[in-house]
Design goal:
The protein is mostly helical. Helices cover 75% and strands 0% of the residues.
């Protein structure tokens, strides 16, 4: 890249220097993530860092003598780098995915078309890496998020619903603690049964290797092995080709497109589902952690409307946080999901509070 013939304007220099700082920060983030990875993922992350280095060279060439002292990267990239240095997790990759999706190069005439295409491809690359990470944690993470959210909402509804009837604060406190324990045990047991059942279903659905031992005894004319592969989703032609390979009738791989091995290439879904004990423990602990929050005002000795307002405020902040975390990990808008969590949680609590008021009035 050769410097432009016309001298750059002050606005151009400022914009190019910002791009330069961001490219350096993104390259450093990918190198830091690569340092915590190994194998293929490490190679991919280093490849991304190398691409950001090419973009850095582009802006340096445009700036020439105007490069000056390095600027600070944007707040978004600084936060991303901070997380990468301290965590290096799928959370960082999810943030990086959103960062790549907001690249300004498409609207910048100084960026080349190749750079615009690079940034679009980078988003997909990071999305793929983030998807791998999500698959590794999705089972127990799902249980943890649902446990915390259920604990927050159900116990807040219980506490303020009972509180609206006018009963003493001590009764509300013990009701909240009882709801915490009962709910946590119920969630833990439910998650264990759910995950165990799902894993057993996957195990029952996974093809076995019986074809390896039974093939030599089959009636070649009838060739029931073809039925096995057709039942697994292969076309008749592909099934016949695969059966012929298993029976040793083909010495060469004459048509590789037919050489499908669904019994060998099925993805390991167990990692996505999680383990029964892991999901149960996550659900129990996070439900309890969520359920204790609306009880805290009563633990501190507060009662009446003040305790209700404080409980709603604390739970609201926790719902916003859980919604934002789920959004960041899924690549969605943190604000939208946080507000959705808040609306659903406080809406459910408001209904029970109104019912408690009605019930308390009818008793009195």
């Amino acid at each position: 890249m050769t410097p432009p013939e016309q001298p750059p304007t002050a606005h151009d220099i400022s914009r190019w220097r910002r791009h330069l700082a961001d490219e350096r920060a993104e390259a450093a983030t990918y190198r830091e993530l690569a340092r915590r990875r190994s194998g293929e993922e490490r190679e991919i992350l280093l490849g991304l860092a190398e691409a950001e280095g090419r973009h850095e060279a582009h802006w340096l060439a445009l700036l020439g003598e105007h490069a000056g002292r390095p600027l600070r990267a944007s707040l978004r990239n600084r936060v991303l780098g901070w997380f990468a240095r301290r965590f290096g997790s799928v959370f960082v990759l999810a943030l990086a995915q959103r960062s790549e999706a907001r690249s300004p190069y498409a609207a910048d005439p100084s960026a080349t078309s190749a750079m615009v295409a690079d940034e679009q491809i980078h988003e997909e690359v990071v999305r793929g890496l983030a998807t791998r990470g999500r698959a590794r944690l999705s089972g127990n993470f799902r249980a943890a998020v649902f446990g915390a959210n259920d604990g927050l909402v159900s116990n807040l509804a219980l506490v303020i619903g009972i509180g609206a009837t006018g009963v003493p604060a001590a009764f509300i406190l013990f009701s909240g603690l009882a709801g915490l324990l009962a709910g946590a045990l119920s969630m833990g047991a439910g998650e264990y049964v759910s995950v165990r059942s799902q894993r057993e279903l996957l195990s029952a659905s996974r093809p076995t290797q019986i074809t390896l031992t039974a093939a030599k005894e089959l009636d070649i004319a009838a060739n029931e092995l073809v039925l096995v592969y057709r039942a697994r989703g292969m076309t008749p032609a592909a099934a016949e080709h695969r059966a012929a390979e298993r029976l040793g009738l083909l010495e060469c791989d004459c048509d590789p497109s037919f050489s499908l091995r669904p019994e060998e290439d099925l993805p390991d879904q167990y990692e996505t589902v999680g383990t029964g004990l892991g999901a149960a423990a996550s659900s129990f602990c996070f439900f309890a952690a969520g359920a204790i929050i609306p009880v805290l005002p009563y633990v501190l000795g507060l009662d009446g409307l003040l305790a209700v307002v404080l409980a709603c405020l604390l739970v609201g902040l926790a719902l916003l946080a859980t919604g934002a975390v789920v959004a960041l990990l899924s690549g969605a808008s943190p604000l939208r999901l946080a507000l959705r969590q808040l609306g659903i949680g406080l809406g459910a609590a408001a209904v029970t509070y109104l019912l408690g008021l009605l019930f308390g009035t009818s008793i009195s």
